[in-house]
Specification:
This protein has about 270 residues and is an all-beta fold. The chain contains one helix and 22 strands. It has a seven-stranded mixed beta sheet with strand order 1-20-17-22-15-13-14. The two termini are about 20 Å apart. Keywords: Iron, Metal-binding.
Length: about 270
């Protein structure tokens, strides 16, 4: 099958300014509901949040989700019913495998707002015992190349320890990559799967809003996503669904003036 690229413009996502919280929802979440954008395979939530100092999300419960935070700027304090207390900073990824149930809270630490992505995926195995993982990835590691920041715990080389090097373990079929792409530079991504098997694969690309919150409209850096003879321009806050078969190659070129921060998800169908 050919490569299909379906843009998800920032201005079409759910967004809200609550004063203490400025947020964008790629998929249906909270008061935002759109049946055409409720999930993508096992990927259920991509929220881009900014929270003012002294504010945050009070203690609340989760179960049967893999939930992780990707820190863009500022500091985020995490507390949970497993006894974990941690302040997360730029480059950190913190993942909670909620399993049978966990309670946690997240608040801005320090004197500046925190900017982070909150991501949820459905686990491949139900009724797991809750687990907690943290990893750190430097800007130098991400410079003009992909870094695998989240990967299935069953994948070779993924370490099950709370803190370790390599990808953050997830109990589900999602792999997440991150990059800081310089102007004029290009990255490629090989869609996983056996070439010629005819099976459809899912990829989601998102350009992080590093230039700031803009009430739903994308701005700032610009990236060209291409594959199978198709291409689309993505500004900050924009994303794109990609449907392809294994062995296809996607290209991402920074056609803007500044460094673009990108994340990419390979997603298993449920």
């Amino acid at each position: 099958m050919p490569v299909h690229i379906i843009p998800r413009p920032s201005q079409d996502r759910g967004n809200a300014d609550h004063g203490w919280l400025k947020t964008f929802h790629t998929f249906s979440f909270a008061d935002y509901y759109d049946p055409e954008h409720s999930s993508f395979g096992s990927l259920r939530v991509i929220n881009e949040d900014r929270v003012l100092p002294g504010e945050g999300f009070g203690t609340h419960a989760h179960k049967e989700f893999e939930i992780w935070s990707y820190l863009v700027s500022g500091e985020l304090e995490h507390r949970d019913s497993l006894g974990n207390v941690e302040i997360l900073k730029r480059g950190d990824v913190q993942l909670t495998s909620a399993g049978t149930g966990v309670r946690h809270s997240e608040h801005t630490a320090g004197s500046v707002p925190v900017h982070f992505l909150q991501i949820w995926a459905r686990p491949s195995t139900p009724h797991l015992q809750p687990q907690y993982y943290t990893r750190h990835y430097t800007d130098a590691e991400k410079a003009d190349k992909w870094v695998k920041v989240v990967a299935p715990i069953t994948e070779e080389g993924v370490k099950p320890e709370r803190e370790a090097d390599g990808p953050t373990p997830v109990h589900g079929g999602v792999t997440m990559y991150a990059s800081l792409l310089s102007p004029g530079k290009t990255l490629e991504h090989l869609v996983p799967g056996k070439e010629g098997d005819g099976k459809q694969r899912k990829v989601y690309v998102h350009v992080i809003q590093t230039s700031g919150y803009n009430e739903g409209a994308a701005k700032g850096n610009e990236v060209r996503l291409s594959g199978g003879g198709n291409d689309v321009l993505l500004k900050e806050g924009d994303g794109a669904y990609v449907l392809a078969t294994g062995g296809e190659t996607l290209g991402l070129e920074n056609v803007g003036q500044g460094k673009a921060e990108l994340v990419l998800f390979d997603v298993d169908a449920e």
